[in-house]
């Protein structure tokens, strides 16, 4: 009897072990094909229509959240007014038809689906600058990730070229605000409602060679067209230009050439190379301008760029150096003394003090000087005036004395009056050119200091 009982116990133990093994094997088989079974159940024909919107009530829209993470700023063309970049776009919505219990499918919580398997929103980049307008969401690149609770996420990378209205008045210290406008493809707001998502951000770690991204935000708006409202999400990218390339390669050489042009006014007219030096410096600036013109942005309705203003002022200073040098050289070689009591007082006494230039050998301008001027005009005295006065002295004429010097001394000094006038005008012209040069470049320097 005991032997039979032991035999039955062994048989029951064996049957129990076999049952547990078969159940475990069946469970493993079930987990192995859980994704296949889930896909077949969710997307079986006749129950899921990819063309039908995932809403319970037909008069309700599908709420789609759109986010964008920009990870590369490829280029920003000032001439074409085009922004080219690379971003990761994310779209999220709720599909009530995609639901399952993870415990029934091997604890499977997410399912990767193709765009043609389920309903996906159709969007357009409306301010695109590319020749071909198309949906930026490509089926070969994007995949949908469905969650067990019905939330669907569609994400992938895009390369976008969009128009960007640029304001160049503060170039090269300008900041630009470019936008990317995403809207539904001929779908009113009552059918598909777009909203900006929480994942909008910049993921660029370093600035490019010319631009630094500052901010990337989004807002949702609606546009009325033919009595219908269309929702759209506008992404704003704020970038700041890095000005050091333009300052070192354009602004600094132009300023150095102009600063050297100011030295022309300190050369004496007798040197003979004064005008040729001014012409050479102006030609150097013209050649430099032709070389660098391609790298500068075109002027627009927002005003002349700051850097171009500086270059224009530098050209004006270079042109004035030539024109005013011609004036002073002409006065330098004009024969005879300076005529007119007022002009002699102005150029021989007042202006030398103003420009810190000493008037050697010239005393106070008085009535004797005026009589000398009248006598000089009557006799048409030139450079041999001293000889004519000496002949008059031999004939018995008395030489009049005026406060420590004679009319003969005055006439001898009068031969150098025009040289003194030319030297005075040189310093006055230098001050005028220096003021123009400073006014033209002070804004650029102030922006550089403020930017630091």
UniProtKB/TrEMBL annotation:
UniProt-listed SUPFAM superfamilies: Neurotransmitter-gated ion-channel transmembrane pore, Nicotinic receptor ligand binding domain-like
Subcellular localization, per the record?
Membrane
Q: Which organism is it from?
A: Patiria miniata
Q: Which domain of life is it from?
A: Eukaryota
What protein am I looking at?
Answer: Uncharacterized protein
The keyword Nucleotide-binding is annotated on this UniProt entry: no
Topology in membrane: Multi-pass membrane protein
Keywords, sorted A to Z? Ion channel, Ion transport, Membrane, Signal, Transmembrane, Transmembrane helix, Transport
The terms describing its cellular component in GO are: membrane
MF terms in GO: extracellular ligand-gated monoatomic ion channel activity; transmembrane signaling receptor activity
**Residue ranges constituting the Neurotransmitter-gated ion-channel ligand-binding domain according to the UniProt record:** 37-242
Query: Which parts of the sequence belong to the Neurotransmitter-gated ion-channel transmembrane domain?
Result: 252-378
Give the similarity note: Belongs to the ligand-gated ion channel (TC 1.A.9) family.
Segments traversing the membrane: 246-268, 275-293, 313-331, 428-451
From the UniProt annotation, give the residues forming the signal peptide: 1-23
Note the InterPro entries from the entry. Neur_chan_lig-bd (IPR006202), Neur_chan_lig-bd_sf (IPR036734), Neur_channel (IPR006201), Neuro-gated_channel_TM_sf (IPR036719), Neuro_actylchol_rec (IPR038050), Neurotrans-gated_channel_TM (IPR006029), Neurotransmitter_ion_chnl_CS (IPR018000)
